């Protein structure tokens, strides 16, 4: 399994919309679910809720599966990414982590 972890800073005026799009059944998860190798998305908010800091953790069966998904769904991914850009002050890929079993 591969965990893809992103960090987002979101202003207070966009938090509700951001949470709607990035939660476990939001638009990103719906797009990812079009691939059978996608497992789930978890949306986390820092304990200091007023800071507007969120993490998303996307779980995929393999790094290769995620890479293939991004290639196959590049147009849809790009369109959703552009739609969501206005919601965030910053976005950073923390990393792609593989589970140790």
Defining traits:
101 residues, alpha+beta, Alpha-Beta Plaits, four-stranded antiparallel beta sheet, 4 strands, 36% strand, globular
Structure description:
By secondary structure, the protein is α+β, with helices and mostly antiparallel strands. It has one domain: Alpha-Beta Plaits (2-Layer Sandwich). The protein is built from four helices and four strands; from the N terminus they run βααββααβ. The chain has helices spanning 15-22, 27-32, 63-72, 74-85; strands at 2-10, 38-45, 53-60, 88-98. The protein has a four-stranded antiparallel β-sheet. A hairpin with a 7-residue loop joins β2 and β3 (53-60). The longest helix is centred in the last third of the chain and has 12 residues, at 74-85. The termini are close together. The mean pLDDT is 95.
Mean pLDDT, all residues: 95
**Largest sheet descriptor:** 4 strands, antiparallel
CATH class: Alpha Beta
**General form:** globular
Indicate the CATH architecture: 2-Layer Sandwich
N-to-C CA distance: 9 Å
Tally of separate helices: 4
How many beta-strand segments? 4
Estimate the helix proportion, in percent. Answer: 25-40%
The largest beta-sheet arranges its strands as 2-3-1-4
Number of domains: 1
Instruction: Report the portion of residues in β strands.
Output: 35-45%
CATH fold-level name: Alpha-Beta Plaits
Order of helices and strands: EHHEEHHE
Sheet/helix structural class: alpha+beta
**Low-pLDDT stretches:** none
Supply Rg. Answer: 13 Å
